[in-house]
Structure formats: structure tokens, C-alpha cells
Specification:
The complex is a heterodimer of chains A (359) and B (134). By secondary structure, chain A is of the alpha/beta class. Chain A has nine helices and 15 strands. The chains are: A alpha/beta (359), B mainly alpha (134).
Chain lengths: 359, 134
Amino acid sequence: MRNGIDRRTFLKGAGLLGAAAALPMGLVEIVWGKAPDQKFTFAYISDAHLTHIKGTEFVQNFDKGLRKAVFEVNFLDPQPDFVVFGGDLAQLGKKEEIDHGREIMKELTTPVKWVMGEHDYYLDLGEYWRKNFGPDHYSFDHKGVHFVVLNSILTDDYWTHEKWPTAEERMHQMARLDNPHGSPFMVKDAQRAWLKNDLAKISKDTPLVVLSHSPLYKVFKPWNFWTDDAEKVQALLKPFRQVTVFHGHVHQVLYNQIGHISFNAFMSTAWPWPYPVSYSQKPNKIPDITVFMNRADPFKERDGTGWGHIDIAGRNGFAHHYGLWENTPRTVEKDARMAHPSDTKYQDPKDRIPPQTRY
Amino acid sequence: MRNVFIGALVVALLACWQTPVRSDEYTREDLKKWDDAYRYMVKEGEKWFHSGALGGNSVSCDMCHPNASDTHPETYPKFQKQLGKVVGLRDMINWCIQNPEQGKVLAADDPKMIALEAYITWERRGVKLAPGKH
């Protein structure tokens, strides 16, 4: 005989309540009423780097990161309009990794916009990824904003097609961030021609959001925090009044402003990268305006990783809420009056805290 | 006969006396040999630092520490707040091998450990020693 709630149902409910209480951020106001620009929110998950070991074994640490992000995005209330996956679902582009990632991402209750990362690409040149997730560059319109997705991790033909004896070797070489035999990322001519054509149909007043894996500017070439033809891409974006680029790859809080183009990085669910300033042997172009994320504690498995959601206010800018696991959440925003994106709490040097000092 | 023997002994002793090399008698070739030996260990360290076979789950050191950055060899030994005591760089190397890499710890004198230390400090060359700094 069952009366009221049985133990299993109670535990399930209690578990969900506990999970809701542990969410790293408050709920978001999405309904802003009738402004000249419609406002909306999208969430992102990025750089999951699911790593196949053998058989059905995967690196648990990275699985946990992606699962946690999917679980928490599903708890956003109200739900975001869509979720962007910022690239590097896989570690070595393997079918096992892409299948595994697709299965975990299937749990999301909102549609996903996919961005290609180099770890998804350099084994089979993106074939299996495209079969699962569709084209690697495309555009769409959402509530008055024109979104463009680019595959920014291409490189020169010799490196891609001739330099390496096998596809596996090519993937391994590109997977190593600090590889002296690596090759810089590019959007390349064909895609830039496509972009030019795509943008020709859009009024210059339309707010533009560009999604890419690598930053569409130059930070640090040795680690490919870099897109080699970035200036040519920026030139195509320049005629538009309001442009924001969101990218993955760098696994850290990073933001910049070049002309009227704002740049903003996604967090990774797998692990944090150091800032290039901590490599003492080579110069870097880390943007001065970025307030560094806190030093991660390696003993806390999810510290320095996370996901986020972004409120888009059309021509009036954006607010990027970083949900940082095991760390204080941060918000980087830019409204129409501001010269560049700014952290809402730590932008002024006098407001910074000791863990933001990196060496 | 006996005198001949003593004479031979004296000659032999004198020869021994002169054999020891003076401390300033090393050559450019010696320097190169020692430098090559060191560079070999840096190369070995670079190989292991980027190898999924160091630990047990194919995760490698460079995945979190490209060019051995964010390892701060110049600050060790120091108080490692998570371990609650003063430790050396090798203790943190072993911590990473055991935890994120799910592998087995290396002995302090394991050539792989020496190689990893050689690579990490080489990538941090020129940075001022800052022992104890958090």
C-alpha cells in the first residue's frame, strides 16, 4: 500500500530541490516589454573536450562538466531562447566522442546552435560533426538581431592536406595547444566571400552577433588565441553600428573592444587555460580591459570552468553572466553609452581582489 | 732485483701523482656534453609533459599548462594551502599525475620526474626566484 509520497519519489524531488538551490546564479529577467529593440537571452556551453579512453570509457572529469552545464541550463527559468555550443565538443574528433557529446546535449530542452572547434575538425575535416549538427557556417535572424556563425579554425592547405602522414597524426598535432609545429587559424577566402554576401542583405542598423570558436582578433599566436585573417573579417563587420563577437577556445574570462566591435569569450566546461601572460618566454596582446578570472584551485575539480547566459538588448548592448562553478559569478556588460565591455564589479583596479593577480 | 722493484714502484707512484686532473681542466667539449645531457632531459620532460601515457586516462599536463605555464616553479618549496604544508614542485607534479591524470606517483629520483622538472623550469627560465610566494 502506498500512502502519499513513497521514498523514491521523495528522494527524487529532494534531489531536484537541492540541485536548484545549488545553481550558481539567480534567475534572469527576460521579459523587458516593448522597446525599440527586443530583448532576449541565450545560454552557451562551450569547450567540453569529451575524451574517449577506450571501449565505453571517457574521462569522467570532462563528462561531469558537460552534464552539469546541460543540467543547469535546463533549470534556467524562464528558459533561454536557444543555447550556443561554442565548439570543441570532442577532444580528438572521434566518432565516439561526438556521439557521446550529442547524447549528453540531447538532454537540453532548448534548441542548440553549433559552432565548430578545431578538436571537432582535424580528424576527418569536420565530416562526422557536420553529419550530426549541420553546416559549420550559417546565419539566422532572431528578434531583430542578425546572427552569423563562422568556422574560424581552418588553416592553410599544405598543413591540412600534405604535412602529416595520417589523419590521426594531424588531429594530435592540432590538439596540442603549445605546438611549435601548429598552424594559425583562419576563416579563409571562401567563407569571407560568403560572409560578405550574407551581410550585403542586412541593413547597417541591424545589430550583429558573430559566433566563432577562436577569437576574431589577435591575442597570442603560439596558442592560437588568434585568427590570422581577423582584420579582414573585422573589415566586413565594420560598417555595422552594433557588433558583438562571442567565441570559445580560450577557456577563460576575456573581453576586448576594437573600434565598435566588442569581443567576449565563453567559459569551458572542461578546464581553464592560463592567461598567456603566465608564459614568460613570449610577448602577448592580452587586452588591457580584461579583468582576469580568479586563479583556479586545481584541488576543486570544477573551479575555473562553467557556462553562461547572455542578455542581448539589440542596439543597446549585452550583459554576459558568467556562471563560474566553485567561484564567484561575474557579469561583463556593455550598453550603448560604454566605450568597451566592463565587469560590473571588478572593472576599477581598486575593486579587484588578490586571486585576480596572475603571475 | 729488489732495487729494480722499488725503482718501478717509485716511477709508478710518481705517475699516479701527476695523473689527477686539475679542477679547471674541463674543455668546451665537456661543456657541450653536459649541456647536451641537460637538453636531452628537457626534451624528455617535454615529451612526458605532453604524453597521455604519463597518467592513466590519456589526460596530459599540457592540457591545463601549455608551455608549462601556471606551474610557478620559482615559488617552490612553498606552503601549499590545499595540502596544509610546505611542499616541493615534485609533490604538485605527483598530485596532478594522481588526480586529474588518474595515474601512479613517480619516485622523487625517477628519471621521468627529473625530466619533468627540467622541462618546467626551462620554460620558466629568467623569472626571478620567489620561494614561498602564493
